[in-house]
Amino acid sequence: MSATKEVRLRAEDLTFGYEADHPLVAGWSAEFPAGSTTALTGPSGRGKSTVLYLLGLMLTPDAGDVLIDGIPSRTLRDARRAHLRADRFGFVFQDAALDTTRSVLDNVTETALYRGMPRGSVESRGRELLDLFGVDVPAHRKPGQVSGGQAQRIALCRALLHAPDIVLADEPTGNLDPTTAGVVVHALQEHARTGAAVVIVTHSPEVANTCDREITL
Fold first, then answer.
1. Cα 24 → chain centroid
2. Rounded to 5 degrees, what are φ and ψ at 188?
3. Is 67 helix (H, G, I), strand (E, B) or coil?
4. Radius of gyration of the chain (CA)
5. For 105-109, 145-149, 194-198, which range has the lowest pLDDT when averaged over its residues?
6. The dihedral of CA 169, 171, 175, 178: what is its sign?
7. What is the pLDDT of residues 162-211, one digit of tens each?
8. C-alpha to C-alpha distance for 84 and 46, rounded to whole angstroms
9. Domain boundaries, the chain
10. Which of 41, 154, 179, 212 is 20 to 30 A from 94 in CA distance terms?
11. 3-class DSSP assignment, residue 176
12. A Pfam family for this UniProt protein (predicted)?
């Protein structure tokens, strides 16, 4: 890691367990600098996804803390944590996690609208991203009417729409063909070059090899 890079996201001695006497993560620390991609790798069951949810403030550690640009987050109120998630983070999940009751465009724009961004500019940017990533379907179509590869690219558009400082991706290429996987990985790399910290949980050596850093759990 370059000493000149700002640490965008830091985990300090994280401990967490779904059962109090069996911590899945114990005393884990890591730094994620701005402008870099980091692969989180390791065997199934080692807590990679759990670490990602801790980093993304979706879980609260039993001990330790997650710092965002040096600011501790563990003791923040739920409303403040939710605001930070919406404002600073973009999330890409393995199953895309789209709302099947809403349109493709609504799925892309929902987080940005929650942040209070103007609907007109948000929808315009959403359409630009859908076009950029080759999601060649009508914007009013529902997620159940698109392919798995298209759904993952829609999720990527949603994650990148508000140009977040931190992107967390959980097996974003796990169910994709090589061509679509390449589109997703390239987009994440390009976003990191804007100064974001990108963290990718992956079982794929090919994906890990494209990242700037690799941390094995």
1. 21
2. -65, -40
3. strand
4. 17
5. 145-149
6. positive
7. 899 999 999 888 878 888 888 889 999 999 999 999 999 999 999 999 99
8. 27
9. 35-46+75-216
10. 212
11. coil
12. ABC_tran
Residues 98, 138 contacting (CB under 8 angstroms):
no
Tell me phi and psi for residue 72, to 5 degrees: -65, 145
CB atoms within 10 A of CB 208: 19
Tokens of 152: 């993952």
Largest CA distance in the chain: 50
> What are the DSSP calls for 119-169, one per residue?
HHHHHHHHHHHHHHTT--S-TTS-GGGS-HHHHHHHHHHHHHTT--SEEEE
Q: What does each C-alpha distance from 120 to 125, 127, 137, 152, 156 come to in angstroms?
A: 9, 11, 20, 24, 20
Specify the amino acid at residue 59.
L
Tokens, residue 204: 């794929």
- Report the distance separating Cα 136 and Cα 115, nearest Å: 27
Dihedral sign from CA coordinates of 174, 179, 183, 185: positive
Contacts of residue 54, Cβ cutoff 8 Å, sequence gap at least 6: 11, 14, 16, 25, 60, 61, 66
